[in-house]
Write a structure and sequence with these properties.
Blueprint (H helix, E strand, L loop, with lengths): L1 H34 L2 H11 L5 H45 L9 H14 L5 E9 L1 H8 L1 H18 L4 E4 L4 E7 L3 H16 L2 E3 L2 E3 L2 E9 L5 H18 L5 E3 L3 H22 L2 E10 L5 E13 L2 E3 L1 H10 L3 H16 L7 E5 L10 H12 L6 E6 H6 L1 H13 L3 E7 L5 H7 L4 E4 L1 H6 L4 H17 L2 E4 L5 H10 L3 E2 L10 H13 L9 H9 L3 H4 L2
Parallel strand pairs: 6-7, 9-11, 11-12, 12-13, 13-14, 14-15, 15-16
Antiparallel strand pairs: 1-3, 1-6, 2-3, 4-5, 8-9, 8-16, 9-10
Length: 543
């Protein structure tokens, strides 16, 4: 860019010099003509050679010279306008290089330039830095297209400019913004951060629809001094990532321990990307036992990630990370494919229960993609039971209805997981044709500890019976719980008492053992449990 500017400047200087030279030549010639009385000699010459029409030729030359002068003046004017346009275009290019064309906010390049200048000049004044990241923006782009996403970004920029008219606002990434304000007052910063969250969480009218996004905000303070502002921006980033990982649509101030957590998260994110790419996250299988016949009704697939020998990463840690980083879709496809391949080794009446991330229910074509995987692996969709939560359905009801409709049309069954722990349970049961209700382990753990808990369990089992759907109880860990659930008429049981999550090979042995040595419902299931645990490696038995 600097080289182009110098070329344009050099071109303008050359034109000016040419005009100056020709003006000086004209003035010199005029003075010389007057001093030498050239006009007298010309008149005498024309009178002497009148018959040769030199006078007409002289008049023609004067006219041509006048026309040439007019043309030169016009050309000079055009060159001046051209130079002006070039300088204006150069200014526009410089503006575009340091501003975001969509929101017209300064961009990361401008921020870097100002940070470098502040560092050179020994920036001394106190500042507060806010890092803002939109929650759910990727979903808006995926569902409604980039045109709606652009409208959302412009509205966000307008709200930030209205809220901070005298301060510096930058768009530094797709849905990331930085706000730098004067002063470093903790109370004022906390109030401003909450105001950002509230303003950006409010519904946004984009195109012909209303879109809801949230905002996670982290903030930090710059006391002044070399690189202080750089450090504050980095710290506000750490705080923002903490806000996102702790529930989203929150405002969090920087604390020193966040730096370690962010580094840890970054390393884990890199390891997760490699694990998804290399397929090292595999399913383990926990038995689902028919409480009436004691037969294996199926297995629930549970993701297991062994980071290194003997070191497992909890699904509660890497599944949310996969959702945040956009890795949940390839991870889900990989795990379902492995599950389908393994389930082909089971008896045809043994089904597969598979958890579907709430994030994926917003993708209208996810159902078709899962059906395609099952077709490619030769696994009948009628043997699949997809487990979803109540809250995931409520996030995007129309999209969830489309996804579940596609899967049910193919023959898959739908289980409502963690029943009773979300909201609007009865409305979900009336709006969707669920095949199974899964009683959350928290209810099973609390049973027999009070009359109220027992009534809740009875009500859920009775509700399932009345609706003609099966009930599955999670978290069965002792004989008393098992006996009570059987007495209530609960259909399926799941828990450590009946079988721990196990690798694929152990699951095959578990099924075969049940076929070879059927266990009556009244028999002591602890013998079967002991055999299943013995089939596992020691490190998994301890998990």
């Amino acid at each position: 860019m600097d080289g182009v500017s110098r070329m344009k400047q050099k071109s303008g200087t050359r034109v000016f010099l040419e005009i100056l030279v020709w003006t000086l030549v004209f003035m010199f010639a005029s003075v010389l003509a007057i001093a030498l009385n050239v006009h007298h000699y010309v008149d005498a010459f024309l009178d002497t050679y009148h018959g040769y029409h030199f006078d007409d030729l002289f008049i023609l030359l004067n006219i041509a010279g006048l026309v040439g002068l007019i043309y030169s003046l016009v050309r000079v004017k055009d060159l001046t306008l051209e130079n002006h346009r070039r300088r204006e275009a150069e200014r526009n290019v410089a503006w575009l290089a340091t501003h975001d064309a969509l929101t017209e906010l300064p961009n990361r390049r401008m921020l870097d330039q100002e940070l470098a200048a502040a560092s050179r000049e020994g920036h001394r004044s106190e500042r507060t830095v806010f890092s803002v990241d939109l929650d759910g923006f990727k979903r808006v782009n995926d569902l409604f297209g980039h045109a709606v996403g652009n409208e959302v970004l412009k509205t966000v920029a307008e709200r930030l400019k209205a809220s901070f008219p005298e301060d510096c606002i930058y768009r530094i990434g797709g849905d990331e913004f930085v706000v730098i304000t004067r002063g470093a007052d903790a109370a004022a910063a906390a109030s401003s951060a909450q105001r950002i969250v509230q303003q950006l969480t409010a519904p946004i009218d984009a195109d012909v629809m209303t879109v809801d996004v949230g905002a996670s905000v982290g903030y930090a303070f710059s006391p002044g001094g070399p690189d202080s502002l750089n450090t504050a921006i980095l710290h506000s980033d750490y705080a923002m990532y903490t806000a996102k990982s702790s529930g989203r649509s929150r405002a969090v101030a920087f604390a020193p321990e966040m730096e370690h957590n962010v580094y840890k998260r970054a390393r884990l994110e890199g390891a997760l990307k490699r694990a998804v790419r290399e397929g090292t996250i595999i399913p383990h299988f926990q038995p689902l036992i028919d409480l009436k016949t004691n037969r294996v009704n199926g297995f629930e697939a549970l993701a297991r990630w062994e980071l290194q020998p003997g070191e497992f990463v909890s699904p509660g840690e890497f599944i949310p990370l996969a959702e945040e980083t956009g890795l949940i879709m390839p991870l889900t496809e990989h795990l379902l494919r492995l599950c389908c391949i393994e389930a082909r080794n089971w008896p045809q009446d043994v089904g597969l229960a598979f958890n579907l991330s709430p994030m994926l229910l917003s993708d209208a074509v996810i159902g078709l993609r899962l059906i395609k995987i099952m077709a490619e692996e030769g696994f009948a969709p009628t043997r699949l039971e997809l487990e979803i939560t109540e809250s995931s359905v409520m996030k995007d009801y129309p999209a969830a209805q489309k996804v579940l409709g596609d899967l049910m049309d193919a023959g898959a069954r739908i289980a409502l997981d963690d029943f009773g722990t979300g909201y609007s349970s009865l409305s979900q049961l009336s709006g969707f044709s669920f095949d199974t209700i899964k009683i959350d382990r928290s209810f099973v753990t609390a049973m027999n500890k009070g009359e109220r808990q027992d009534k809740v369990i009875r009500a859920i089992v009775a509700l399932g019976s009345g609706l003609g759907v099966k009930t599955t109880a999670e978290g069965i860990e002792d004989e008393a719980q098992l006996a009570y659930l059987r007495s209530l008429g609960c259909d399926i049981g799941q828990g450590y008492l009946l079988g721990r999550p196990m690798p694929a090979e152990a699951a095959r042995r578990f099924v075969q053992q049940r076929l070879d040595h059927p266990v009556e419902p009244e028999a002591d299931v602890a013998l079967t449990q002991a055999g299943a645990v013995a089939a596992l490696p020691g490190k998994l038995r301890r998990a």
